[in-house]
Q: What sequence folds into this?
């Protein structure tokens, strides 16, 4: 595998991880929002 | 809706940056290298913006910590910790890309060059900051003590940047305080790459602060007796 392919592979992995992070954090925010709503309802 | 437009712009800018990195910019060599022009130079378009973003993130952490110490408002501490987390991610990318480049340019992944070493110290200092926070349960004490730690750790940022001036180094000095040793194509590609990473950083900071705020709100509600 050449240098160019390695770099392209590395870039795809980095941007892929960024994309997964965005999906994960949005999911986390949804869950946290839901927990806050439930706790506020309880009070 | 605004979020979606922002993300679409971020995506487009980063696609343009990738195009410029791999197609628009020719294979180049840094002036400090002796080998023939190589594609490995392209890693510079990820390495430099990541280093810049980590410096920016750690500076935001410092600002947040100082504001917390002055105003005693938790929102500044939340901003500081969210930015430190992102700073660590960008610092890790900087170290990884630097090592890949070093293997091609110097023949080894790691050779304790002053820039490499000081950047590793920077990474470890902020890792220590986040670890230290996890060890303290009391919110007020945690915010206060970790803010003081950041005031000490921030010294690693100028140390990492200026290490190439203080010690003999193999690290290329493409951009100094007085000059930019790059051609037009490289400068254009680098600027678009910086813009792409900056847009990602801003959005990451926004969502991370949002998640941190919600986590603290849950802790507060539970402590008040809700949970």
A:
């Amino acid at each position: 595998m050449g240098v160019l392919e390695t770099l392209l592979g590395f870039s795809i992995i980095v941007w892929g991880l960024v994309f997964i992070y965005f999906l994960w954090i949005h999911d986390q925010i949804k869950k946290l929002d839901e927990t806050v709503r439930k706790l506020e309802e309880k009070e | 809706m605004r979020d979606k437009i922002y993300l679409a712009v971020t995506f487009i800018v980063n696609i343009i940056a990738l195009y410029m990195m791999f197609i628009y910019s020719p294979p180049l060599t840094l002036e400090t290298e002796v080998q023939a022009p190589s594609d490995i130079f392209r890693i510079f378009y990820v390495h430099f913006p990541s280093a810049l973003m980590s410096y920016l993130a750690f500076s935001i952490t410092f600002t947040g910590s100082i504001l917390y110490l002055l105003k005693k408002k938790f929102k500044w501490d939340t901003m500081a910790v969210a930015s430190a987390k992102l700073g660590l991610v960008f610092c890790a990318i900087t170290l990884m890309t630097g090592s890949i480049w070093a293997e091609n340019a110097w023949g080894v992944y790691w050779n304790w060059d002053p820039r490499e070493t000081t950047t590793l110290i920077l990474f470890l200092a902020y890792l220590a900051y986040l670890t230290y926070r996890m060890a303290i349960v009391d919110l007020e004490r945690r915010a206060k003590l970790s803010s003081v730690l950041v005031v000490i750790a921030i010294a690693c940022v100028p140390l990492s940047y200026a290490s190439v001036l203080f010690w003999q180094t193999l690290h290329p000095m493409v951009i100094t305080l007085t000059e930019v040793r790059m051609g037009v194509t490289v400068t254009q590609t680098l600027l678009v790459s910086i813009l792409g990473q900056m847009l990602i950083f801003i959005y990451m900071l926004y969502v991370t602060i949002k998640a941190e705020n919600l986590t603290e709100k849950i802790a507060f509600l539970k402590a008040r007796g809700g949970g």
